[in-house]
Amino acid sequence: MALSNPIAPQPQIYFARAIDGENPAEIRFLAAQVGRELSQAGLAMVDPTSGTPLLGGQEAEYASSARAIVDHELSLLRRCDAVLMDMSIPNRNYIGCVCEMTYAHLWRIPCVVVYSGGSAQPRPWLLYHAAAIFETREAAIGHLAEVLKAGAASTNG
Predict the structure, then answer these.
(1) Which partner for 86 in 17, 45, 63, 132 could form a disulfide, CB atoms 3.0-4.6 Å apart?
(2) Nearest Cα to Cα of residue 107 among 67, 79, 72
(3) How far is CA 70 from CA 73, 74, 77, 100, 138, in A?
(4) What pLDDT shows up at residue 129?
């Protein structure tokens, strides 16, 4: 008689954050740090920047490669259990993140946001689309771990 593996796969967490115009070394450093934090909480990070096609230089190449980037990232998002979205840079336009959040909402993938709006309250559209909003990444990851483990327990029990 074969024994089934009692260890369920780790929930897959899509890590969305500012990319455009940011220092590539800092993007990789943050991904490594968040990957460790998620792993410590029993979650696996999916980094949409890994394996992303590069933008071309010419206008036609740029449009084609932009489509390839978005298609790649949406294909990853679609397979994830949740999104951890870092929107902690004050006064930053998070166009890509907002689009990812909208897709996640439509696909019923919970999106937990780390938000630093200074003294400003989160805007109505953010409140509507986010499953939860936290001021710290630690709190957001804790929430994700709690919710996803509770969900796994209810489907296994």
Answers:
(1) 17
(2) 79
(3) 5, 6, 10, 9, 28
(4) 96
Report phi then psi at 47, rounded to 5.
Answer: -100, 110
- For residue 11, what are the contacts with CB-CB under 8 A and spacing of at least 6? 42, 43, 44, 81, 82, 144, 148, 152
CATH number of the domain enclosing 127? 3.40.50.450
Measured between its terminal Cα atoms, the distance across the chain in Å is 23
Residue 22 lies in a domain: yes
What is the span of the domain harbouring residue 149?
12-156
In a domain, 69, yes or no: yes
Instruction: Give the pair of three-digit tokens for residue 95.
Output: 């166009």
Structure tokens, 77: 């998002």
User: Distance between CA atoms of 56 and 66, rounded to whole angstroms?
Assistant: 8
- The answer to the question of residue 6 being in a domain is no
SS3 86: strand
